[in-house]
Specification:
It is built from 17 helices and 11 strands. It has about 425 residues and is of the alpha+beta class. It folds into 3 domains: about 15-220, Beta-Lactamase; about 225-360, Winged helix-like DNA-binding domain superfamily/Winged helix DNA-binding domain (Arc Repressor Mutant, subunit A, Orthogonal Bundle), CATH 1.10.10; about 370-419, no CATH class. It is globular. The model has no long low-confidence stretch (mean pLDDT about 90).
Length: about 425
């Protein structure tokens, strides 16, 4: 197959391919091996599904209903582009007896619309607004896999990990925030075998790009003092967005802007030296040179001295997570957490901020005991060795895969203590 993201190559018989995939799925669930012709993207997703503790006979759970669903949808960024998505995909879905679906970055379905009879059929497997269709919850499926890998993807027939979903075919594409590049959710089309055609994947991808373009146009003009947005989670080099301009900062400049954003009152040169450098031999001259270069990047008037401070308000994605945690909105905080704060930074003060944010969120996840949120953390790169989270996950979702991973971590801890 020339494109591994497409479900069927030109000329393939969908009936025969579906039959072959069912046999392959049975082989995988019984023996753990992936035979041909399962695509690499699907095989990887099946393995992630197993590691998350998903069983082939599971079903999606509905997390949001009624007023909670309405409030969450109204505040979600994708609500602003739903009229466009409906215009582009709605008629196609209704006429073709398909469904249009839009999910958030956690794979939670926000809107499911289309042909009434198809909606009723889909409702029997909880493919409904408010249901969670993340890979970690229901295994391989187009919207969940699209947000997991950040790519448009088709899922055909028995490529779905859960058996009750295997009569369906779907294609989905992620929608990104045009300012920060973060995944906001995905646009999906779900229906019969005909959606395995390459055009359906290209179609949803075009709709997702149109949604991103409209989001960029709909970005409101900011009133009051000029402000900036800082993206620092899950990346070593921060993105600073201000006045329609996005700048990728160097690692050292990323650390400086993070610290100054955290201290709007400003920091003296000595305070910044201690916050940035473990090596006490680093001189103020080195810091002044860095600040001069940063001032040139930020532009005139945006970086003051004596003390060093930013002259514009800066909102970072880390601050969003902290604010949601303080409000007790654990799911919303987990959704906004894209990874550790500047994970490669060794600056002492940045490392403290990184630990405080991660420890606060993981403690909230353990306390709330939501199996899907715990699974998302445990299977993320930053959580795969987190013993406390794996223990909490095993308590609320005691699957064989979870138990096996927990036992391996505890064995490693015992060996380390013995050493």
């Amino acid at each position: 197959m020339t494109d591994s993201w497409l479900a069927l190559e030109p000329g393939a018989d969908p009936v025969e391919r579906a039959r072959t995939l069912r046999r392959a799925h049975d082989t995988f669930t019984e023996a753990g091996t992936v035979p041909r012709p399962v695509r690499a993207v699907v095989a990887d997703s099946w393995r992630r599904s197993v590691r998350a503790g998903v069983g082939p006979d599971g079903t999606a759970s509905v997390e949001l209903t009624d007023g909670d669903l309405g409030a969450y949808r109204s505040e979600h960024p994708l609500a602003r582009v739903m009229p466009l998505v409906r215009e582009l995909l709605g008629t196609f879905a209704s006429d073709g007896e398909h469904l249009l679906a839009v999910c958030d970055a956690h794979g939670r379905l926000l809107w499911v619309e289309g042909h009434p009879a198809t909606r009723r059929r889909a409702g029997r497997m909880n493919f409904v607004p408010g249901a969670r269709w993340a890979e970690s919850a229901v295994g391989t499926n187009a919207p969940g896999t699209a947000v997991a890998v950040g790519r448009p993807v088709q899922v055909f027939a028995a490529e779905h990990f859960i058996r009750q979903v295997q009569p369906w075919t779907c294609a989905a594409a992620p929608v990104h925030d045009p300012r920060t590049g973060r995944v906001l959710g995905a646009v999906d089309i779900t229906g019969g075998d005909g959606l395995a055609h390459p055009h359906s994947l290209g179609f949803v991808q075009a709709v997702a790009r149109a949604a991103e373009s409209q989001l960029a146009l709909l970005t409101p003009e900011r009133s009051g003092p000029e402000s900036a947005e800082l993206t620092v989670l899950g990346r070593d080099e921060a993105l600073l967005s201000a006045e329609g301009r996005r700048v990728r900062l160097s690692r050292r400049h990323s650390e400086i802007v993070v610290l100054l954003a955290h201290h709007p009152e400003g920091l003296t040169g000595d305070e910044l030296l201690c916050a940035l450098y473990e090596d006490e031999t680093v001189t103020p001259v080195t810091l002044r040179a860095e600040m001069a270069r940063l001032r040139g990047i930020l532009g005139a008037g945006r970086l003051a001295s004596r003390p060093y401070r930013l002259t514009m308000p800066v909102e970072s994605d880390a601050t969003v997570v902290e604010r949601r945690l303080r409000a007790g909105a654990v799911t919303a905080a987990a959704t906004a957490y894209a990874g550790p704060l500047l994970p490669g930074s060794q600056a002492p003060a940045v490392a403290r901020l990184r630990r405080r944010l991660a420890d606060g969120l993981r403690a909230a996840l353990i306390s709330c005991g939501d199996p899907d949120l715990l699974a998302d953390w445990a299977h993320a790169p930053w959580g795969e060795d987190d013993l406390d989270v794996w223990r909490a996950l095993a308590a609320v979702r005691p699957t064989a895969a979870t138990g096996s991973r927990l036992a391996a971590l505890e064995s490693e801890l015992t060996a380390a203590d013995a050493w």
